[in-house]
Amino acid sequence: VFLATVGLYLLLISPGENGLNQGDILTFGCAISFAIHIIMQDIYIKKEVRLLPFFCVQSGFVTLFSLLNAQIVESTPIIWSDQLYIAIIITGVLGTFAAFLIMIWAQKILNPAETAIIFSIEPLAAAVFATMLGGEILGIWGWMGGIVVCLAVIYGESG
After folding, report:
1. Ramachandran bin of 4, using left for φ above 0, alpha for ψ from -120 to 50, beta for the remaining angles
2. Which residues form the EamA domain (predicted)?
3. Which helix (H) or strand (E) holds 53?
4. Does residue 152 contact residue 4 with C-beta atoms inside 8 Å?
């Protein structure tokens, strides 16, 4: 897990920037939240909880919390449109619900450390897709970070 964290740091740093910025702090907070989520989910899944109801409760809570948070924090009004509905379906249903349903199922056979290592691949995959599809240019530190993440996955899976 430490090796994957080092790789993520290399993947995400911006050369020439000094110190932490707001994005770094949010990323760190998100990583802590995911770690707590993975550990707590592991505890409940190991108790032979039925997966579908467990998933539905999680998804319902996240949906409700996100809607309330958007109303409180965001100053821009929501403009409902066909594009917004499509974005919600793609990111909400496919990107979130499907991914978390698979994660809940997979955690029945994986331990929390293995789950965390697999989660660490996400920024690398995002960087690769951004390079291939979005024309972004990843610097040498980013590619080195991606290699370290891959090495962490290989090391973590080799025992």
Report:
1. alpha
2. 23-154
3. helix 51-73
4. yes
pTM > 0.90: no
Rounded Cα–Cα distance for residues 130 and 141 (Å): 16
CB 58 within 8 A of CB 101: no
Residue 144: domain span: 2-157
Number of domains in the chain: 1
Give the model confidence (pLDDT) of 57-85 as tens digits.
888 888 899 889 888 888 888 888 999 99
**Given phi > 0 = left and psi -120 to 50 = alpha, else beta, which region is 19?**
left
Tokens describing residue 96: 């979130």
- Closest by CA position to 47, among listed 106, 108, 116: 108
Query: Other CB atoms closer than 10 Å to residue 14's CB: what's the count?
Result: 11
